[in-house]
Amino acid sequence: MIQAVVRIVAPDEKRSEAMEVLRSLKEPTEVSRGCLGCRILQDVDNRYALTCVEYWETLEDLEQHIRSERFRRLLPYIDMSVEPPEVEFDRIDKIHGIEFVVDTLTSRRG
């Protein structure tokens, strides 16, 4: 699985517009081939900081998404970020859930 993260800090006058663009991309992205999920997040410490987190089955699915017209709508907002934008693509081999917390809290190691 691939996790894609794009974090921008929108200029004051473009914050609402940037949020609307991100919202408009969420549903179409989620139904794209290979998309396992898409979340739009607003930072609690900086309401101008917006993050889009996507999960993709394969690198090929992600590459197709990046080439899409839909993704290109996000590029101007990445470019206008008032702080250096964060763009990361991470390969995730295994995901743990609540059972990891329970196992960690109940293990005698450490």
Write up what this structure looks like.
The chain has 110 residues and is α+β, with helices and mostly antiparallel strands. The protein has one domain (2-106): 2-Layer Sandwich (Alpha-Beta Plaits). It contains five helices and four strands. Strands 2-3-1-4 form a four-stranded antiparallel sheet. A hairpin with a 6-residue loop joins strand 2 and strand 3. The chain starts with a strand and ends with a helix. The model has no long low-confidence stretch (mean pLDDT 94).
CATH class: Alpha Beta
- Can you tell me the residue ranges where pLDDT is under 50 for at least 5 consecutive residues? none
| Overall 3D shape | globular
* Beta strand count: 4
Mean pLDDT: 94
Topology:
Layout: E1 2-9, H1 15-30, E2 35-42, E3 49-56, H2 59-66, H3 69-72, H4 75-79, E4 86-91, H5 98-106
Antiparallel strand pairs: 1-3, 1-4, 2-3
Quick structural gist:
With 110 residues, the chain is an alpha+beta fold.
Provide keyphrases for this structure.
single chain, globular, 38% helix, Alpha-Beta Plaits, alpha+beta, four-stranded antiparallel sheet, 27% strand, 110 residues
